[in-house]
Model the fold of this input.
Amino acid sequence: MSDKSHLLEPRYNQQILIAEKHLQTKAKGKGTKINKERIGYLVEIGAQCPICGIRFEGGNHNTEHIFPSGLGGENKNHNKIQMCVACNSARNQILQLLGHPPWYDRYPENFEHVKKVLIWCLITVEDGIHSGKQVPEIHDKFMQYRTGGQEFPNKPTKSFGPASTWVVGDNPNYLHNHSPNNRTQSGKAPTTSLTLSVFDWIFGYKSKAKTPPSKNLRKTTDERAKAESEPKVERAKAESEPKVERKLFTNLIRDLIGEDSIYLQELGKRIAVHQKENGMGDTTTKTFLKSYGFGSKTGLLKAIQMTLAGEVVYNRESQSPKIGLSTHPITKFVNTHSGLRLPREPQAFSDILVWLSTSMQDFENHIECREAIREANLLAKSPVPLLLGLYKVFNEDQEYLEASKIIVTIKPHQVCEKYLEYYSNNKISGMDPAPATSEIKEGLTKYMNAAISHLSAADEVA
Ligand SMILES: [Zn+2]
Done:
Protein backbone atom coordinates (compact mmCIF):
# COMPACT_ATOMS: atom_id res chain seq x y z
CA MET A 1 0.00 0.00 0.00
CA SER A 2 1.26 3.48 -0.76
CA ASP A 3 1.96 5.96 2.00
CA LYS A 4 -1.26 7.65 3.11
CA SER A 5 0.17 9.39 6.14
CA HIS A 6 -0.16 12.86 4.59
CA LEU A 7 -3.88 12.21 4.19
CA LEU A 8 -4.09 11.25 7.83
CA GLU A 9 -2.34 14.37 9.09
CA PRO A 10 -5.50 16.49 9.33
CA ARG A 11 -7.10 13.84 11.52
CA TYR A 12 -4.17 13.94 13.93
CA ASN A 13 -3.44 17.62 13.62
CA GLN A 14 -3.90 18.26 17.29
CA GLN A 15 -1.58 15.46 18.37
CA ILE A 16 1.02 16.55 15.82
CA LEU A 17 0.92 20.04 17.31
CA ILE A 18 1.37 18.60 20.78
CA ALA A 19 4.34 16.51 19.65
CA GLU A 20 5.85 19.53 17.98
CA LYS A 21 5.54 21.61 21.11
CA HIS A 22 6.88 18.75 23.18
CA LEU A 23 10.00 18.56 21.04
CA GLN A 24 10.41 22.31 20.95
CA THR A 25 10.22 22.69 24.69
CA LYS A 26 12.47 19.67 25.27
CA ALA A 27 10.07 18.34 27.86
CA LYS A 28 10.53 14.84 29.24
CA GLY A 29 7.87 12.22 28.86
CA LYS A 30 6.69 10.25 31.85
CA GLY A 31 4.58 7.18 32.25
CA THR A 32 2.90 5.05 34.87
CA LYS A 33 1.07 1.77 34.52
CA ILE A 34 -2.61 0.99 34.70
CA ASN A 35 -3.29 0.09 38.33
CA LYS A 36 -2.59 -3.39 39.69
CA GLU A 37 -6.14 -4.38 40.45
CA ARG A 38 -7.26 -3.69 36.90
CA ILE A 39 -4.27 -5.46 35.38
CA GLY A 40 -4.98 -8.42 37.67
CA TYR A 41 -8.49 -8.47 36.27
CA LEU A 42 -7.23 -8.61 32.69
CA VAL A 43 -5.10 -11.66 33.51
CA GLU A 44 -7.88 -13.28 35.49
CA ILE A 45 -10.33 -13.23 32.61
CA GLY A 46 -7.71 -14.05 29.95
CA ALA A 47 -7.84 -10.74 28.12
CA GLN A 48 -5.80 -10.46 24.94
CA CYS A 49 -3.37 -8.04 23.39
CA PRO A 50 -5.39 -5.64 21.21
CA ILE A 51 -2.69 -5.69 18.55
CA CYS A 52 -1.85 -9.37 18.12
CA GLY A 53 -4.49 -11.25 20.08
CA ILE A 54 -2.04 -13.03 22.42
CA ARG A 55 -3.54 -13.91 25.77
CA PHE A 56 -2.23 -12.07 28.82
CA GLU A 57 -0.54 -14.47 31.22
CA GLY A 58 1.91 -13.92 34.04
CA GLY A 59 3.92 -10.87 33.16
CA ASN A 60 3.75 -11.04 29.36
CA HIS A 61 2.02 -7.69 29.13
CA ASN A 62 2.66 -4.05 29.79
CA THR A 63 0.98 -0.68 29.85
CA GLU A 64 1.62 1.24 26.65
CA HIS A 65 0.96 4.88 25.93
CA ILE A 66 -1.09 5.11 22.76
CA PHE A 67 0.32 8.56 22.05
CA PRO A 68 3.95 7.90 23.06
CA SER A 69 4.85 9.83 26.18
CA GLY A 70 8.25 10.65 24.71
CA LEU A 71 6.43 12.63 22.07
CA GLY A 72 4.17 14.44 24.50
CA GLY A 73 1.37 11.91 25.07
CA GLU A 74 -0.44 12.37 28.36
CA ASN A 75 0.10 9.98 31.23
CA LYS A 76 -3.63 9.55 31.72
CA ASN A 77 -5.98 6.63 31.40
CA HIS A 78 -7.40 7.71 28.09
CA ASN A 79 -3.90 7.34 26.67
CA LYS A 80 -3.07 3.98 28.28
CA ILE A 81 -3.75 0.55 26.92
CA GLN A 82 -2.51 -2.86 28.02
CA MET A 83 -0.48 -4.66 25.36
CA CYS A 84 1.62 -7.80 25.18
CA VAL A 85 5.33 -7.33 25.87
CA ALA A 86 6.24 -8.34 22.31
CA CYS A 87 3.98 -5.74 20.68
CA ASN A 88 4.99 -3.19 23.26
CA SER A 89 8.65 -3.71 22.54
CA ALA A 90 8.18 -3.71 18.76
CA ARG A 91 6.40 -0.39 19.17
CA ASN A 92 9.34 0.85 21.19
CA GLN A 93 11.65 -0.23 18.42
CA ILE A 94 9.58 1.80 16.00
CA LEU A 95 10.22 4.81 18.19
CA GLN A 96 13.93 4.05 18.20
CA LEU A 97 13.84 4.57 14.43
CA LEU A 98 13.86 8.23 15.41
CA GLY A 99 17.28 7.63 16.95
CA HIS A 100 18.08 7.37 20.63
CA PRO A 101 16.01 9.70 22.78
CA PRO A 102 15.77 12.54 23.53
CA TRP A 103 14.29 13.19 20.12
CA TYR A 104 14.31 16.93 20.51
CA ASP A 105 18.02 16.74 19.76
CA ARG A 106 17.15 16.11 16.16
CA TYR A 107 14.12 18.41 15.94
CA PRO A 108 13.10 19.87 13.51
CA GLU A 109 14.99 17.74 10.94
CA ASN A 110 13.25 14.61 12.17
CA PHE A 111 9.75 16.03 12.30
CA GLU A 112 8.41 14.47 9.11
CA HIS A 113 9.46 11.13 10.49
CA VAL A 114 8.03 11.93 13.93
CA LYS A 115 4.67 12.62 12.31
CA LYS A 116 4.61 9.25 10.55
CA VAL A 117 5.56 7.36 13.68
CA LEU A 118 2.97 9.26 15.69
CA ILE A 119 0.19 8.69 13.17
CA TRP A 120 1.04 5.00 12.99
CA CYS A 121 1.04 4.67 16.79
CA LEU A 122 -2.37 6.33 17.07
CA ILE A 123 -4.19 4.77 14.17
CA THR A 124 -3.15 1.18 14.87
CA VAL A 125 -4.89 1.41 18.24
CA GLU A 126 -7.83 3.52 17.12
CA ASP A 127 -8.67 1.68 13.91
CA GLY A 128 -6.98 -1.68 14.49
CA ILE A 129 -3.53 -2.93 13.53
CA HIS A 130 -4.38 -3.33 9.85
CA SER A 131 -4.92 0.38 9.45
CA GLY A 132 -1.18 0.78 10.07
CA LYS A 133 -0.61 -0.28 6.46
CA GLN A 134 -1.47 3.24 5.45
CA VAL A 135 1.95 4.19 6.76
CA PRO A 136 3.87 1.32 5.16
CA GLU A 137 7.32 2.62 5.99
CA ILE A 138 6.56 2.24 9.71
CA HIS A 139 4.15 -0.65 9.53
CA ASP A 140 6.51 -2.96 7.66
CA LYS A 141 9.24 -2.31 10.21
CA PHE A 142 6.87 -3.05 13.06
CA MET A 143 5.78 -6.36 11.52
CA GLN A 144 9.40 -7.18 10.80
CA TYR A 145 10.37 -6.60 14.44
CA ARG A 146 7.30 -8.29 15.80
CA THR A 147 6.85 -11.41 13.64
CA GLY A 148 9.61 -11.31 11.05
CA GLY A 149 7.10 -9.95 8.59
CA GLN A 150 4.34 -12.55 8.98
CA GLU A 151 0.70 -11.65 9.54
CA PHE A 152 -0.56 -12.33 13.07
CA PRO A 153 -2.06 -15.82 13.29
CA ASN A 154 -4.76 -14.64 15.71
CA LYS A 155 -6.97 -11.61 15.77
CA PRO A 156 -7.99 -10.09 19.08
CA THR A 157 -11.39 -11.27 20.28
CA LYS A 158 -11.13 -10.42 23.98
CA SER A 159 -9.25 -7.15 24.20
CA PHE A 160 -9.84 -3.98 26.11
CA GLY A 161 -9.66 -0.43 24.82
CA PRO A 162 -7.92 2.48 26.53
CA ALA A 163 -7.99 2.31 30.32
CA SER A 164 -10.50 5.15 30.46
CA THR A 165 -13.10 3.06 28.64
CA TRP A 166 -13.52 0.17 31.07
CA VAL A 167 -13.50 -0.79 34.74
CA VAL A 168 -13.01 -4.06 36.59
CA GLY A 169 -16.00 -6.25 35.83
CA ASP A 170 -16.55 -4.99 32.30
CA ASN A 171 -16.38 -7.23 29.30
CA PRO A 172 -13.77 -6.78 26.60
CA ASN A 173 -14.62 -3.55 24.81
CA TYR A 174 -11.88 -3.00 22.27
CA LEU A 175 -13.59 -1.69 19.16
CA HIS A 176 -11.63 -3.95 16.86
CA ASN A 177 -12.27 -7.20 18.60
CA HIS A 178 -13.26 -9.87 16.15
CA SER A 179 -16.08 -12.11 17.15
CA PRO A 180 -14.94 -15.62 18.11
CA ASN A 181 -16.69 -17.27 15.16
CA ASN A 182 -14.37 -15.32 12.87
CA ARG A 183 -16.95 -12.87 11.67
CA THR A 184 -15.32 -9.54 11.21
CA GLN A 185 -16.35 -6.30 12.81
CA SER A 186 -17.58 -5.05 9.47
CA GLY A 187 -20.45 -7.51 9.71
CA LYS A 188 -21.97 -5.33 12.39
CA ALA A 189 -24.58 -2.72 11.79
CA PRO A 190 -22.98 0.55 10.78
CA THR A 191 -23.34 3.59 12.91
CA THR A 192 -26.32 5.46 11.62
CA SER A 193 -25.25 8.82 12.86
CA LEU A 194 -21.97 10.59 13.27
CA THR A 195 -23.36 12.18 16.39
CA LEU A 196 -21.96 9.22 18.25
CA SER A 197 -18.64 10.95 18.23
CA VAL A 198 -19.94 13.17 21.02
CA PHE A 199 -20.39 10.08 23.06
CA ASP A 200 -16.96 8.81 22.28
CA TRP A 201 -15.86 11.82 24.24
CA ILE A 202 -18.25 11.07 27.03
CA PHE A 203 -16.68 7.66 27.25
CA GLY A 204 -13.27 9.21 26.89
CA TYR A 205 -12.78 7.10 23.81
CA LYS A 206 -11.52 9.28 21.04
CA SER A 207 -11.93 7.16 18.00
CA LYS A 208 -13.78 6.73 14.78
CA ALA A 209 -16.08 4.36 16.56
CA LYS A 210 -17.86 1.93 14.30
CA THR A 211 -20.28 1.11 17.07
CA PRO A 212 -20.93 3.06 20.24
CA PRO A 213 -18.45 1.87 22.84
CA SER A 214 -21.28 1.49 25.33
CA LYS A 215 -22.58 -1.37 23.25
CA ASN A 216 -20.17 -3.98 24.48
CA LEU A 217 -19.42 -2.62 27.90
CA ARG A 218 -21.47 -4.65 30.29
CA LYS A 219 -22.53 -7.78 28.54
CA THR A 220 -21.50 -11.32 29.16
CA THR A 221 -19.93 -13.21 26.31
CA ASP A 222 -23.17 -15.10 25.76
CA GLU A 223 -25.21 -11.94 25.63
CA ARG A 224 -22.75 -10.44 23.21
CA ALA A 225 -22.85 -13.40 20.89
CA LYS A 226 -26.63 -13.20 20.97
CA ALA A 227 -26.64 -9.48 20.33
CA GLU A 228 -24.24 -9.90 17.44
CA SER A 229 -26.44 -12.42 15.74
CA GLU A 230 -29.08 -9.77 15.10
CA PRO A 231 -27.50 -6.41 15.70
CA LYS A 232 -29.19 -4.64 12.82
CA VAL A 233 -32.67 -5.54 13.95
CA GLU A 234 -31.93 -4.49 17.50
CA ARG A 235 -30.39 -1.19 16.47
CA ALA A 236 -33.08 -0.34 13.96
CA LYS A 237 -35.73 -1.01 16.56
CA ALA A 238 -34.04 1.23 19.07
CA GLU A 239 -33.61 4.09 16.61
CA SER A 240 -37.23 4.21 15.63
CA GLU A 241 -38.77 2.83 18.80
CA PRO A 242 -42.41 3.79 18.25
CA LYS A 243 -43.28 3.69 21.93
CA VAL A 244 -40.70 6.27 22.97
CA GLU A 245 -42.27 9.53 24.04
CA ARG A 246 -39.51 11.43 22.40
CA LYS A 247 -40.83 14.93 22.80
CA LEU A 248 -41.86 14.60 26.43
CA PHE A 249 -38.57 12.96 27.25
CA THR A 250 -36.34 15.51 25.54
CA ASN A 251 -38.25 18.43 27.03
CA LEU A 252 -37.84 17.04 30.50
CA ILE A 253 -34.15 16.27 30.05
CA ARG A 254 -33.57 19.78 28.74
CA ASP A 255 -35.30 21.15 31.83
CA LEU A 256 -33.33 18.97 34.18
CA ILE A 257 -29.96 19.86 32.70
CA GLY A 258 -30.85 23.51 32.23
CA GLU A 259 -27.89 25.78 31.78
CA ASP A 260 -25.60 23.52 33.76
CA SER A 261 -22.82 21.28 32.73
CA ILE A 262 -23.21 18.20 34.90
CA TYR A 263 -22.03 14.68 35.46
CA LEU A 264 -24.32 11.97 34.17
CA GLN A 265 -24.65 10.83 37.76
CA GLU A 266 -25.96 14.24 38.75
CA LEU A 267 -28.54 14.03 35.99
CA GLY A 268 -29.58 10.67 37.47
CA LYS A 269 -30.07 12.36 40.85
CA ARG A 270 -32.17 15.11 39.31
CA ILE A 271 -34.30 12.51 37.62
CA ALA A 272 -34.83 10.78 40.96
CA VAL A 273 -35.90 14.07 42.54
CA HIS A 274 -38.28 14.64 39.65
CA GLN A 275 -39.75 11.19 40.14
CA LYS A 276 -40.21 11.78 43.85
CA GLU A 277 -41.84 15.14 43.27
CA ASN A 278 -44.24 13.44 40.91
CA GLY A 279 -45.17 10.82 43.41
CA MET A 280 -43.43 7.87 41.84
CA GLY A 281 -42.59 5.16 44.31
CA ASP A 282 -39.74 3.64 42.36
CA THR A 283 -37.14 6.29 41.65
CA THR A 284 -34.65 4.28 39.63
CA THR A 285 -33.47 5.56 36.28
CA LYS A 286 -34.54 2.30 34.72
CA THR A 287 -38.16 2.84 35.73
CA PHE A 288 -37.97 6.41 34.56
CA LEU A 289 -36.72 5.40 31.12
CA LYS A 290 -39.29 2.64 30.90
CA SER A 291 -42.06 5.12 31.59
CA TYR A 292 -40.99 7.03 28.50
CA GLY A 293 -41.06 3.88 26.43
CA PHE A 294 -37.39 2.97 26.24
CA GLY A 295 -36.47 -0.67 26.12
CA SER A 296 -34.98 -2.41 29.13
CA LYS A 297 -31.53 -2.48 27.57
CA THR A 298 -31.41 1.26 27.07
CA GLY A 299 -29.48 3.20 29.68
CA LEU A 300 -29.74 6.90 30.34
CA LEU A 301 -26.79 7.81 28.17
CA LYS A 302 -28.09 5.78 25.27
CA ALA A 303 -31.55 7.27 25.64
CA ILE A 304 -30.07 10.76 25.46
CA GLN A 305 -27.92 9.71 22.57
CA MET A 306 -30.99 8.51 20.69
CA THR A 307 -33.01 11.64 21.24
CA LEU A 308 -30.76 14.58 22.01
CA ALA A 309 -27.40 13.81 20.46
CA GLY A 310 -27.18 17.01 18.46
CA GLU A 311 -27.75 19.15 21.51
CA VAL A 312 -25.47 17.50 23.98
CA VAL A 313 -22.00 18.84 24.39
CA TYR A 314 -19.21 17.28 26.29
CA ASN A 315 -17.30 19.56 28.57
CA ARG A 316 -13.64 18.77 28.08
CA GLU A 317 -12.53 21.17 30.75
CA SER A 318 -13.09 18.63 33.43
CA GLN A 319 -11.28 15.34 33.73
CA SER A 320 -14.50 13.51 34.38
CA PRO A 321 -16.94 13.80 31.53
CA LYS A 322 -19.81 16.19 31.99
CA ILE A 323 -22.75 16.86 29.78
CA GLY A 324 -24.54 20.06 29.02
CA LEU A 325 -26.88 21.37 26.41
CA SER A 326 -25.67 23.62 23.73
CA THR A 327 -27.71 26.79 23.77
CA HIS A 328 -27.10 26.90 20.07
CA PRO A 329 -27.78 23.35 19.09
CA ILE A 330 -26.56 24.07 15.62
CA THR A 331 -25.32 20.61 14.99
CA LYS A 332 -23.29 17.97 16.62
CA PHE A 333 -20.47 18.96 14.30
CA VAL A 334 -19.86 22.45 15.45
CA ASN A 335 -18.31 22.08 18.84
CA THR A 336 -17.49 18.44 19.20
CA HIS A 337 -13.98 17.10 18.87
CA SER A 338 -14.64 15.89 15.37
CA GLY A 339 -16.44 19.00 14.27
CA LEU A 340 -15.49 22.60 13.77
CA ARG A 341 -14.36 23.00 17.36
CA LEU A 342 -15.93 26.36 17.88
CA PRO A 343 -16.69 27.56 21.40
CA ARG A 344 -20.13 26.62 22.58
CA GLU A 345 -21.38 30.20 22.69
CA PRO A 346 -21.17 32.42 19.61
CA GLN A 347 -20.40 35.32 21.94
CA ALA A 348 -17.24 33.57 23.10
CA PHE A 349 -16.23 33.19 19.49
CA SER A 350 -16.78 36.86 18.69
CA ASP A 351 -14.90 37.90 21.85
CA ILE A 352 -11.91 35.86 20.89
CA LEU A 353 -11.93 37.20 17.35
CA VAL A 354 -11.85 40.77 18.61
CA TRP A 355 -8.98 39.87 20.89
CA LEU A 356 -7.09 38.06 18.15
CA SER A 357 -7.49 40.88 15.70
CA THR A 358 -5.66 43.23 18.04
CA SER A 359 -3.15 40.82 19.59
CA MET A 360 -2.20 38.34 16.93
CA GLN A 361 0.71 40.37 15.60
CA ASP A 362 2.37 40.14 19.02
CA PHE A 363 3.01 36.45 18.65
CA GLU A 364 5.95 34.77 17.08
CA ASN A 365 4.16 31.46 16.67
CA HIS A 366 1.01 29.57 17.48
CA ILE A 367 2.37 28.28 20.75
CA GLU A 368 2.82 31.77 22.12
CA CYS A 369 -0.58 32.64 20.81
CA ARG A 370 -2.39 29.84 22.52
CA GLU A 371 -0.57 30.37 25.79
CA ALA A 372 -1.71 33.99 25.69
CA ILE A 373 -5.29 32.91 25.03
CA ARG A 374 -5.08 30.62 28.02
CA GLU A 375 -3.73 33.38 30.21
CA ALA A 376 -6.36 35.81 29.05
CA ASN A 377 -9.00 33.31 30.12
CA LEU A 378 -10.90 33.80 26.95
CA LEU A 379 -12.02 30.23 26.57
CA ALA A 380 -13.21 27.62 28.99
CA LYS A 381 -11.53 24.87 27.06
CA SER A 382 -8.24 24.52 25.29
CA PRO A 383 -7.71 27.11 22.56
CA VAL A 384 -5.86 24.61 20.39
CA PRO A 385 -8.89 23.29 18.51
CA LEU A 386 -10.15 26.78 17.83
CA LEU A 387 -6.79 27.89 16.48
CA LEU A 388 -6.56 24.81 14.34
CA GLY A 389 -9.97 25.56 12.92
CA LEU A 390 -9.01 29.16 12.22
CA TYR A 391 -5.77 28.27 10.55
CA LYS A 392 -7.52 25.67 8.53
CA VAL A 393 -10.21 28.00 7.32
CA PHE A 394 -7.72 30.68 6.46
CA ASN A 395 -4.93 28.82 4.94
CA GLU A 396 -5.00 25.14 4.60
CA ASP A 397 -1.54 24.64 3.23
CA GLN A 398 0.36 27.51 4.76
CA GLU A 399 2.38 27.67 7.90
CA TYR A 400 0.36 28.69 10.94
CA LEU A 401 2.20 31.94 11.25
CA GLU A 402 1.39 32.86 7.68
CA ALA A 403 -2.25 32.11 8.31
CA SER A 404 -2.28 34.23 11.45
CA LYS A 405 -0.87 37.17 9.52
CA ILE A 406 -3.83 36.95 7.21
CA ILE A 407 -6.24 36.76 10.09
CA VAL A 408 -5.03 40.01 11.62
CA THR A 409 -5.38 41.92 8.40
CA ILE A 410 -9.11 41.42 8.21
CA LYS A 411 -11.99 42.34 10.47
CA PRO A 412 -13.54 39.89 12.94
CA HIS A 413 -16.92 39.78 11.22
CA GLN A 414 -15.15 38.84 8.00
CA VAL A 415 -13.68 35.88 9.84
CA CYS A 416 -17.21 34.67 10.48
CA GLU A 417 -18.05 35.09 6.83
CA LYS A 418 -14.92 33.25 5.82
CA TYR A 419 -15.95 30.31 8.00
CA LEU A 420 -19.31 30.18 6.28
CA GLU A 421 -17.74 30.42 2.87
CA TYR A 422 -15.19 27.75 3.66
CA TYR A 423 -17.63 25.26 4.99
CA SER A 424 -20.34 25.92 2.47
CA ASN A 425 -17.90 24.92 -0.24
CA ASN A 426 -18.25 21.39 1.03
CA LYS A 427 -14.84 21.55 2.51
CA ILE A 428 -15.76 19.61 5.58
CA SER A 429 -13.32 16.78 5.25
CA GLY A 430 -10.16 15.52 6.84
CA MET A 431 -10.44 16.58 10.44
CA ASP A 432 -14.20 16.84 10.01
CA PRO A 433 -15.64 13.48 9.11
CA ALA A 434 -18.95 14.83 7.94
CA PRO A 435 -20.02 16.19 4.61
CA ALA A 436 -21.32 19.73 4.71
CA THR A 437 -24.95 18.83 4.87
CA SER A 438 -27.70 21.41 4.72
CA GLU A 439 -28.20 20.81 8.43
CA ILE A 440 -24.62 21.77 9.19
CA LYS A 441 -24.71 24.77 6.90
CA GLU A 442 -27.92 25.99 8.43
CA GLY A 443 -26.58 25.51 11.94
CA LEU A 444 -23.31 27.18 11.16
CA THR A 445 -25.08 30.11 9.56
CA LYS A 446 -27.16 30.56 12.71
CA TYR A 447 -24.08 30.42 14.90
CA MET A 448 -22.03 32.81 12.80
CA ASN A 449 -24.91 35.25 12.47
CA ALA A 450 -25.21 35.27 16.24
CA ALA A 451 -21.47 35.88 16.51
CA ILE A 452 -21.65 38.69 13.96
CA SER A 453 -24.50 40.36 15.80
CA HIS A 454 -22.44 40.29 19.01
CA LEU A 455 -19.62 41.91 17.08
CA SER A 456 -21.91 44.63 15.71
CA ALA A 457 -23.31 45.29 19.17
CA ALA A 458 -19.77 45.63 20.49
CA ASP A 459 -18.91 48.00 17.63
CA GLU A 460 -21.83 50.25 18.48
CA VAL A 461 -20.78 50.46 22.11
CA ALA A 462 -17.25 51.30 21.03
ZN1 LIG B 1 0.60 -8.24 21.14
Remarks:
- The chain is about 45% helix and 5% strand.
- Strands lie at 61-65, 80-84, 261-262, 312-315, 322-325.
- Confidence is low (pLDDT under 50) at residues 182-241, 428-434.
- Residues 182-239 form one domain.
